[in-house]
Amino acid sequence: xxxxxxxxxxxxxxxxxxxxxxxxxxxxxxxxxxxxxxxxxxxxxxxxxxxxxxxxxxxxxxxxxxxxxxxxxxxxxxxxxxxxxxxxxxxxxxxxxxxxxxxxxxxxxxxxxxxxxxxxxxxxxxxxxxxxxxxxxxxxxxxxxxxxxxxxxxxxxxxxxxxxxxxxxxxxxxxxxxxxxxxxxxxxxxxxxxxxxxxxxxxxxxxxxxxxxxxxxxxxxxxxxxxxxxxxxxxxxxxxxxxxxxxxxxxxxxxxxxxxxxxxxxxxxxxxxxxxxxxxxxxxxxxxxxxxxxxxxxxxxxxxxxxxxxxxxxxxxxxxxxxxxxxxxxxxxxxxxxxxxxxxxxxxxxxxxxxxxxxxxxxxxxxxxxxx
Length: 372
Fold this sequence. Notes:
Pfam families: Arm_2. The structure is a single chain. The protein is mainly α. The chain has helices at about 1-40, 50-55, 85-95, 100-110, 115-130, 135-140, 140-150, 155-170, 175-180, 185-195, 195-205, 215-230, 235-250, 255-260, 280-295, 300, 310-315, 325-330, 335-350. The longest helix has about 40 residues, at about 1-40. The protein is elongated and about 60 Å long. About 35% of the residues are buried.
């Protein structure tokens, strides 16, 4: 009987021991799985465009599915897989003064007939190579840039976006800037006719990366309403790029009126609200300062300009504008660069540019009351 009485207790002990052992085993297996996952290295990658593109996806670019490998095109024949060293090996070769030929192979692949997805991935890979393989990128020719620029005529928006990114990469090399400027009108046309936020970002980043030549100004006047619409959209990255371009254009005497007379929404001053991201607020304030300086310049004041009631000029500098209230609120913004820039705008509104030859700042040029 004592044995029978002790059995339930012993069984409970055994169950506890078994549970403890099982739990410890599960933890150990989990530890081994995690350790194996950390130590696991990706398979040796190929020199194909999809391999290079996977290594380091760039911010602002579209995510591409990684399940579908793309063969690299070799020669003038059909697509045949060509396996070789990955981009890391190409970088290592360049470090030792050797040309890996990676960028040239990709450019040759682009010349062959490809589907839209393949072209996008090849262009993405070329972009990365231009940034990382400096000597190979510098050895490219204007014909290579022209080839990339021809991709802007592709019917697929993804190809256009990747081509814009590649042109921006090439624009960092001085000898290609004149050739890339030839595509500025086409880029402006794409930005103004296709409503795609990622295309806007890619195109505007390119245009902001080099000075726009004077022959582009007529096209800029035509696309000004589109640029203003992008600025008033809800996509922060596109807004920041658009306003940077507009800030640069505001310093051109022949474009200042076109910018100021551009139609804006009734809630345009919402861009100056303290709830906006600091990066956007700062750029908006720089834009306002440059507009204020431009309209105070002797060149601009020599002409009697007329603006429509819903123009940017009326929203910022009109009699009914509430810009002063927004600026005063931004003086106590948490970010210091926003505070400083808000003060700069206030100063530019109070005093015209030629204040040095005037005894005082006339109140007629101020958006602020004497008490303020």
